[in-house]
Amino acid sequence: MTTASSAGPTGGDMLLIEALYEGNRNATDTLELDFGYRTKSRLRAKLGSGAEVGLFLPRGTILRGGNRLLANDGRVVEVVAAPEDLMEVRCADALELARAAYHLGNRHVAVELGEGWLRIQADHVLEGMLTGLGADVEALRAPFEPEAGAYAHGHQHPGDGSGARIHMMDGQ
Description:
single chain; alpha/beta; HSP40/DNAj peptide-binding domain; Alpha-Beta Plaits; seven-stranded mixed sheet; four-stranded antiparallel sheet; elongated; UreE_N_sf; unfolded protein binding; UreE
């Protein structure tokens, strides 16, 4: 996965990305991020090529695997959803699966929906709740692409840290 080392103002040789790219050009580099980092609008990271990049995207932007970004040098960068620790939830029938989804939604948990399953980020407390509801829960490592939610653009809570600041990726 792509990593970053420090926060602060961008250096003169650091690439800047301030916009999504909707054009026809193919990507020439990649930016692999887990879902937590794909929800940050201010981030310092490294591209697949090793180039350091600063993301300064509009607040509320959630990057998805396959999105393309435009760097200030004209480079098109493809976002790759990095594999992460998840739990896949399956139930005996649709009503039990809906019940599990309801309880996860009631806790504002990001959920990816699939045919007959739900996926959430690994969490032992939620695993206990779900097994208590009769669900089968299996650990797996995969890219995470949860539902955007009804308030995807600009949904913020006071004090949730969504202000303009650089987020650091662990690992360097």
